[in-house]
Amino acid sequence: MKNDFEVLADGFVFLEGPRWKNDRLWFSDMWGYGVYSMTEEGDCEKIVDVPGRPSGLCFLPSGELIVVSMTDRKLLRLDSNNGLMQYADLALFATADANDMVIDSDGGIYVGNFGYDLFGGAESTMANLLRVAPDASVSVVAEDMSFPNGTVISEDGKTLICAETFANCLTAFTRHADGTLSNRRVWADLGERTPDGICLDAEGAVWVSSFGSGEFLRVFEGGRVGEICTVEGKRAVACNLGGKDGRTLFALTFEGEIEDIAKGAKNARIEVRRVDVPGAGNP
Question: Using CA atoms, how far apart are residues 233 and 255, in angstroms rounded to an integer?
Fold first, then answer.
């Protein structure tokens, strides 16, 4: 299917971490160094500056916003009185820039990292998937992940699915009540596609942003692709389902190459299209 998205907003550098919360889309401009929120109609508000480059976003059970600060490998909590405060330090366990994350119903946060200096041209290495417990303690819950990226938790909380970008697959784990993971398995082999941000819908399918191929895919367990939406000439970076009925697919796109991201040109957009099945699970 050709690009049937409509542009909701543009003028951003490189967008990540879309989340639908409190009737607004929340997202990070990683190389614009800020977190924003936006209505479904496109009215935008800057929430906070993040000098360490923001990526993944989530909300604690209390409603407070948590932001990944990539370069210093921290999770930051937005305090209504004091601004951004350190919530958790990932530096002992994350070997490179922290990346995307997802939160469970108890307030435990799963967060990935690059594993190596991607923007500096370092050789690819494997990375850990971390869990930040509700008391902000940090532990490794999975090792040897190939660029752990977008992550979702099923509606019943029993399955965690993570996009391993450079393994070209979605990897699933059984998630236990204490937040630990087991039974690692390939949930969907995506061939040559490079999964980035992902989100889950009410039929158990995962919408996948394939960065390298410029596609947003609706994928079922086992790898069956139910729908393909291309964004020709652009990168498909991340996506989330939201809107008043949960049936708006918010797609973050980038027009350029990885080498262009740090140059500051405003080539990122938020694009939208309607879908039949609403979002579910987290995020």
Answer: 7
